[in-house]
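Example record for the data management plan.
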Amino acid sequence: MLLYLIRHTSVAVERGTCYGWTDVPVSENFKQEAERTKNILDGLHFDRVYTSPLTRAKQLAAYCGYADATEEPRMKEMHMGDWEMKRFDSILDPELKEYFDHYLDVPTKNGESFRDLYRRVSDFLDQLRQTAANDPSIKKVAVFCHGGPIICALVYAGLVPLEEGYSNIPDYASVTRIELK
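Corresponding structural encoding:
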């Protein structure tokens, strides 16, 4: 099965701000970025299309012609907990250093660790693979989502080591294609 992971366009949030589960608006460049993504997807037929329930992913899905994409909450971005919508450099929480030093296993305060995100995304991908195994007509799937889940999918597919995930974050409005066997 071919999996096309489409990252949302850039957002209207100050650089350095935590915004995982917060439903932030897209930037003023939405139409230009979305048009680029739409052109990449042009001519592709997907047997299933999913989207994160967050507006920034749903809006891109709709622009690309998939307003009826199935919402999949497991493909939301990492939950930043109490740090949502705060600038990293303004967070005075003593747990921030522990998180940065051990982000794979240490969750954000009242949020998730990277491994938590990985488990959530893997659960969805396991289910998707099982669905495709039971229905051979499912050959191409699109998922409109976020950088974190895309990194997790790359790790899941064995293309990136877990420890190197964040050095492989895709660009906004990009399309990442992987094969899930």
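Summary line stored alongside the record: The longest strand covers residues 2-7.
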